[in-house]
Amino acid sequence: MVIARNPDPESRLPFLLRLPLSDGLVFRTSDTWPRTKALFCYPVPADEWPEDPEIVEQVRLRSCVRRGAAIDVVLDRGRENRSQIVFTQARGRDAVFWQSPRTRKQARPNVRTPTARAAGIAELTIVVDSHERYPYKFPGQQVDTVRRALACGDYGLLVDDRLVASVERKSLADLVGSLTSGRLRFAMAELAALPRAAVVVEDRYSAVFKFERVRPAMIADGLAELQVRYPGVPIVFCETRQLAEEWTYRYLAAAHEWTGVEDVACDRITPQHKDAPTAEPSTADVRAWARGEGMKVPDRGRLRPQVWAAWRNAHASG
Q1: Does residue 108 lie within any of the structural domains?
Q2: Contact 235, 199 (CB under 8 A)
């Protein structure tokens, strides 16, 4: 890894960073290492590297590998040796940030996510939007993912081939970019048309007030205005990608249970036939029917989704 002075006196980024990938990747950046905050990097053509550079720092690399939307950089030195070049979007444009473990330390909650099944579901089928470039894989969870185009959101739940719940995933940069461009407002309107929907952000809310290129007050006001306009679509900050992935899994599992036990949900999800009754029977009626069919049901409380499904199948033509 080589860092040199940027010979352009008008540039606000005084350093050039060069990595030995492809024909050489060159970035303009504001410092020689992300010690206190993630550094914005501006990619430039390789030929912008000066013929006679003023070298500031030159360090041997142990590893420099691109993995998905990031480049993992490991230097051959004892301290300040691990960093990551992250490719993302801000205000609808491509952006690159250089971060180190220290700059991400506060965003790491140091927790271990549970492996217990959400809502006791043996296997949950989650639809991943075909446009999602680096999707969640839900490792360690009982999830079967299917790729297909979604009308809105990035991760969805289908019931009878109809989208009933969806989660829109956002990095902080993408959240700010879509908010300032107006795209987030349209996305929220589409999500609000679903029975259940949410937006999950892979960062802390406090990071909003550390964002440098957009006034924090404008971001905070914009998010607040959207929550007032669309109260049924929560915007949830989950600190890290790992926790956002876990929250998405639990949310869609809860939505899966909701569709099976809530009368209102069933009315909204499955259109009633013109000759069908306008409402389903009470829980007590279904409990009595189930016992008559030899099913084991509790004396009180909610019935399992399987019991409701059995009742609907038995009365589908009635």
Answers
A1: no
A2: yes
